[in-house]
Amino acid sequence: LEGVFIVEEVDPVLERDVLAVLGEHNLDCPVYGKFDGTFPMVHEYNGDIVKESFNKVICDLKDDEEFLEEYKSEYGNDFDGDLIEIIEKMEFSDGLNELIDNIPTRAPTLCAGCSHRSAYFAAVKAYQELGYDKSDMIFASDIGCYTLGISPPYETADYLLAMGSSVGDGCGFSIATNQHVMSFIGDSTFFHSGLSPLVNAVHNKNKFVLTILDNRITAMTGGQPNPGIPVDGMGDEAPAISIEDIVEAIGVKFMKIVNPHNIKKTVDIYKEALEYDGVAVVIARYPCTLIKGQKKKAPMVIKDNCVKCLTCVKTLACPAISYLNDKVVVDEALCKSCTVCIQVCPNKAIGVKKGD
């Protein structure tokens, strides 16, 4: 082993551990990471940053006679110290090339059983049932797992500017356009930066629908508590701050709390909210599926009367349901038993698996 590159965002935890192992076993192996200055200590990494960091080391090889001789014998050109040039000249095996060509694209998606998916499904169904087209709508999103609503089939995140901007965007869009505006913000983000713009929305008599996606956790960054639950950041008991009490105190007249996994009720509330003349707040409340301690329930199962309409696969887009070998199948390991697929199947071809 001639060297190790460690590409690691945030704190160099892995790099520190690797250096400790090398030191413990007295191994002479250079480690290129943050501690030696190869990679920057700050910033989210992108392709350019990684390339430049690799080139810091590669360029040093210009003065390595042994490396230059090996490079020239293999590639037959002068070495100019560019990592991309080296990679482009490498010849991979046919098997590896075939593997690279056939690696499936894996778009980021909400977890199976995520209540955000249910809220988005209901929001889309609501505006469609009211006779609106996608072009009649504007969706303002915020920073959180729910930003994934930007992707098909929901496409409920047209704008994302900054934390808390979904509410402020709703204010502006409701004045600047005749389109129907729906904004989405998470419970943690609402506490962080959603209150002030909601005050402005009520004060300025704006008209839009704000959904507060209350999944009882700060899910995207690792499951930290937020002020809406009775536990503080150290795990100690703390007073829970009620989102609905805040919304009412601000002066919002239309506020509904709903379990988004109840699709029919959520659709009805969204239809009512879209037709309300003012700021309408919908609190979509259901715990994140990643919260520990939740009891595992029986998974869903596809019945024999399935006609392969693929509503569950393409319209609901739950990652626990797939279309494989001309059959719709449920991945029992992924299924969270939310029952939303049962509700949306037009042929009632999905049910709860009975005990063996």
What are the key terms here?
356 residues; Alpha-Beta Plaits; 3 domains; Rossmann fold; alpha/beta
Strand content: 5-15%
Coarse shape: globular
- The total beta strand count reads 11
Termini, distance in Å?
A: 52 Å
- Total domain units: 3
- What's the architecture of the largest domain in CATH terms? 3-Layer(aba) Sandwich
Provide the gyration radius in Å.
26 Å
CATH class division of the largest domain: Alpha Beta
- What is the count of helical runs? 13
The CATH homologous superfamily of the largest domain corresponds to Thiamin diphosphate (ThDP)-binding fold, Pyr/PP domains
CATH topological fold name of the largest domain: Rossmann fold
- The chain-level structural class is alpha/beta
User: Which sequence of SSEs, written as H and E, runs from N to C?
Assistant: EHEHHHHHEHEHHEHEHEEHEEHE
